[in-house]
Amino acid sequence: MRTYAIAPVRCLALAGLAALGWPLLAAVFVGSHLGLPSPAFFVEHARRLPTLARRLAGRWGGLEISPPYRPAPPPPRRDADGWYRDGDDLFRSAFFPGYVMKMRWIVRDPATWRDLYWMAANPVVGGLPVVVPPALTAGGIAMIWLRHPVLGGAAVLLGIAMGPVMVRFHARWSRVLLAPVPREGRGRLAAVLVPRLVAGVRLCASVGLAVVAAALALAHVPAIVVTAMRLWPDTVLAARRFVSWRRARIGDWTGVRIVSPYLDEPPMPVPDPDGSYRTGWGEFGTVHRRRESAVRAQRWRWTVRDPASWRDLAWLSLEVPVAAMLYAVPAALIIGGLVVCCWLWVWIKALGLVGASISWSPDDPLWAAVPALAGLPAPVAGLVAAALGIAVAPALLRCHARLSRLLLGPTRTAVLTRRVGALASSRTRISDAQAAELRRIERDLHDGAQARWIAVGMQLGAVEQLISADPEAAKVMIARAKDVSVTALAELRELIHGIYPPVLADRGLADAVRTLALDAPLEAKVVVDMAGQVPPPIGAAVYFAVSELLTNVAKHAAASKVSVELRHEGGLLTATVTDDGLGGATAGRGGGLHGIRRRLDGFDGVLVISSPSGGPTVATLEIPCALSSPRTSTFSEKGSRTS
Hints:
- The protein is α+β, with helices and mostly antiparallel strands.
- It contains 19 helices and ten strands.
- The chain has a six-stranded mixed beta sheet. Strands 1-2 form a two-stranded antiparallel sheet. Strands 3-4 form a two-stranded antiparallel ribbon.
- The C terminus is likely disordered.
């Protein structure tokens, strides 16, 4: 009886908890974009609301929900040289790398986004049902007070009876988003609904982001007119940071990747022998007496003369009309359907139960905008309208992404210029690497095999002198010379293996990678989908890259299993190495991953690392190439080994 008696009060508390979702979500959104004091600060403190919901779900609903958050990263450590490292960047203080690590921990944790989705949906999905029991109870008490004891008593009993049911419903609903995601993934229904719900939330957020884009476009006017273009570069860089962030979000939300088109930042000006600084070239150059003025002029040239800056300004100016054309109607359906026609309708009806006189109904504007929904109950009409908006949200987001790519992506000239620069740089690195490799081979031959063969020759010369005087000693020296020759031959074979592995020449890339998997000190699986043979230079590059990745997994990842997938499709060779280790892998300068990238540069290939803290780590190599005729494999299609 006590559970039923206090259930309406618990429902009222859960309704208040739901009402906090949208204000807190707005605070996170505004605070994260203003950067005060840190986006991670707002998101981390916003976790208290879902944490409280998990605790109440266990106490009141009987459903224990474990916290799904990844463990916090350790504080940055100082290197032996006194610097703090974050990837390729070095810092004297631990503040900034710690700040970046915390940002990655918060933003890259899927539980963070599930918390935000829960805060956005809970006022409707979880808040509306739990309002019913206290509303019935309060309405029943009011009707008893208005001398309708029978109807009022029935309402009170119904509200008390529904209380525990609604509390358990709220706990089950919260578990959908606030519980850890199982390894096997979602069910079929969730796999269909969740991406569309997420797209609906992102579409509504894009409306607000379009307003931010318009504000940044307008900020160019005072920067040009009021400050006489002195603050124009700062305005351009501020807009560039927002546009770069939107470019990344568009790729994450829709899969339409937009390459950054900006020119590289010029180096700091170097003083001439007379102490002045020169910017520009030839007769159009400008001489500056102070370094600050030279830096300002160079920065002006870099930002304002970059065609991508003007294309950014065009995109910022067009974002509001494009968003109005694509997003206005579905956003109005989603927000109006869920908020106006569900949430407000319930509260207005609840006020009517206590005698308040309200002539306006939230469903009036929806019926005026969509006459086909007229006659339906307001909650049903609201859900139908929201479902229509959510259904078209993914397609509209993709359409906006393709339109944005026309302005935010690099032009053909910029792509060719960047490609020429990359090829020239990679050619220089390849030449240096080849020279270094030749020096290494020469040194290994001189210090290894050559020295041992010289020792063999000297021992055989001594044998010639002893063979007639002391045959037994000559036999011993011949045996020693034989051992030295065997060692020299083994070193020579190892050197040849480092230049081009024999298994790669004899069996091809697929079987060579399977051999690496068989030799790996953990469970390894290889899947191959190639209808031919890879050219030898590319095959060697991929072989050594996969070998380095497997070595890194065995040494640093603390993984139990790893999988390697080789695939060729559309003229692109893809090698993917996935492990279930701790994650946190970075391609720092001087490390093995950085060396792999340098190796792939010569073939116009790329290495993409996805390694969130807690894992899994996915390393993807992509190299454009054509396959030759297939070769009969000596292995099965999948090779695995457990040790």
